[in-house]
Design a protein that fits this description.
By secondary structure, this protein is α/β, with parallel strands linked by helices. The chain is built from five helices and ten strands. An eight-stranded mixed β-sheet has the order 5-4-3-6-1-7-10-9. It has a two-stranded antiparallel ribbon with strand order 2-8. α3 links the parallel β3 and β4. The protein starts with a strand and ends in a 6-residue tail after the last strand. The model has no long low-confidence stretch (mean pLDDT about 95).
């Protein structure tokens, strides 16, 4: 069954990027991509990717050779272009309108919400987010882009240490229909 998963890292005080959009605090940390809840194991289960425009532009500027080798939706109201050969789909639609297409493209694998936190929250608001996997770095930023800027109820399913990170896998608790 395809799950929609927000897989990310955060500072101890709950920010995924600093005020100036830097990830230096994250990229300087030791972790094992093949270790517990690491990227290598995670990405093998992914069939489609979704991200916001800010995340997409950060990736294009800081790691232009990285693009998911999977169908990828970029939520944006901007006029953005895709690099040649990339399977990118730019959309300003509500996540609920395109989620079924993402699940279909994932072909039985999971959908990865890369970022940002507000986009993950939009999926949660619509009952479409199934899981949050977060690696918590031993640093505080004091401000920046929040991990998940709204209330979302979670249940711990798994926890582990990977290098300098404490990693936690949560199931999203959906409110009961009234």
């Amino acid at each position: 069954m395809t799950r929609t998963v927000y897989y990310t890292a955060t500072s101890l005080d709950g920010f995924i990027a600093s005020v100036d959009h830097s990830l230096d605090w994250l990229l300087s940390r030791e972790n094992d991509a093949g270790g517990p809840m690491g990227y290598d194991g995670f990405i093998t289960g992914i069939g489609a990717v979704v991200m916001g425009a800010t995340t997409y532009l950060w990736v294009r500027e800081h790691d232009p050779d990285w693009l998911p080798e999977k169908p990828t939706w970029v939520f944006t109201h901007r006029d953005l272009t895709a690099p040649p050969g990339a399977d990118l789909r730019f959309t300003a639609e509500d996540p609920a309108r395109v989620h079924a297409a993402m699940v279909e493209a994932a072909a039985g694998r999971d959908v990865w919400v890369v970022g940002g936190g507000d986009l993950a929250g939009q999926f949660a608001d619509r009952g479409l987010l199934d899981e949050v996997v977060v690696a918590i770095a031993p640093v505080t930023l004091g401000g920046g882009a929040p991990l998940l800027p709204r209330r979302v109820e979670l249940v711990v399913r798994e926890r582990a240490r990977n290098g300098e990170f404490l990693c936690v896998r949560y199931d999203v608790v959906r409110p009961s229909p009234t």
